[in-house]
């Protein structure tokens, strides 16, 4: 997939380009710098580094990778955090943009980053992660490259404490209600669904609850905003609290059942009237969204080649992380997302932490897949994209 977050020692990662958080002077520093020199071969790498000379903060320069599993090392100098008022954020933005631009010039197909400047330079991790995600997502909107964010462990991967608290509360208190709303949609919004009502419903006969004349799924226009509009405007995007009034997923008044009556039809006739496959429904949703195919697969963190294979196969059966990624890219509401997933025989479960996290973001209308993937990684869940 175009963007990955992995837990590893960056000196052991296989990629065309490895990014090193370098000392501005041609000397071996501490932390990541020291580890990369040791793995690549100190003598040869230091000799090349001396030929470059001093590197200004925010700039990047390339050397051969020598003994690393890579072609190049990009040496970039991050900012030393003082108080946030000395251009530290601008320098960190420049580190990512200059490394990505240089990797593109070098015709690299993959690049691995550490969380620049979060070690001995002391840049706040939450803000550093937000800047990294912003610049990586901006680059991948217009370029084809695999970008890997490498962290040593999940404890060093900090997200907004407020965001994590909200997600934890959602999982503990509201997750089951959010998913049950799709099962009993005529109840309206999540706020109207309480444990007592669900308990009473469970005692009713299934035919009474799911009769087609009781409710009908309602179609809604899809949002047409582009990825650039969902990019954070400030480095602290992950700490932003976003909430919107929830719209009822269904009209309160019962609607007539307009579907064909196949109650007495033979099996052959029933099979002739099967609905759209996942691939067909997805392509229709893309057409309705007003976005191009490229915009959608990039926003879904899907490789172009994977999308091309899907596009040519009517019977394409995605894995859950891929199907959900497309739903996020298309900014589907919960009802539309579950309809799309059902066409690949995929469901959301109230016992799955992955499913509840996805439900949290969709119900809060947060569709930045890079932010969602950062949270999934933090919780030890698979990230969205092709699998």
What this model shows, in words?
The chain is α/β, with parallel strands linked by helices. The chain is built from 16 helices and six strands. It is globular and about 80 Å long.
Count the E strands: 6
The main sheet comes to: 6 strands, mixed
Average of per-residue pLDDT values: 80
Question: Strands across the major sheet, in which order?
Answer: 1-6-5-2-4-3
| Protein structure class | alpha/beta
Strand residue content: 5-15%
- Radius of gyration, Cα only, in angstroms? 24 Å
Task: Identify low-pLDDT runs.
Answer: 189-259
Oligomer: single chain
- What is the N-to-C succession of helices and strands? EEHHEEHEHEHHHHHHHHHHHH
Please, how many helices? 16
Roughly how much helix do the residues carry, as a percent range? 40-55%
Query: Given the C-alpha coordinates, what overall shape results?
Result: globular
Features:
387 residues, six-stranded mixed β-sheet, 16 helices, globular
TL;DR of this structure?
The chain is of the alpha/beta class.
Which SSEs are present, and which pair or pack?
Elements: E1 3-7, E2 17-21, H1 32-40, H2 42-52, E3 60-64, E4 72-76, H3 88-105, E5 110-113, H4 125-140, E6 146-151, H5 161-183, H6 195-202, H7 206-209, H8 227-230, H9 267-271, H10 278-289, H11 293-299, H12 304-311, H13 320-329, H14 334-342, H15 353-363, H16 369-378
Parallel strand pairs: 1-6, 2-4, 2-5, 5-6
Antiparallel strand pairs: 3-4
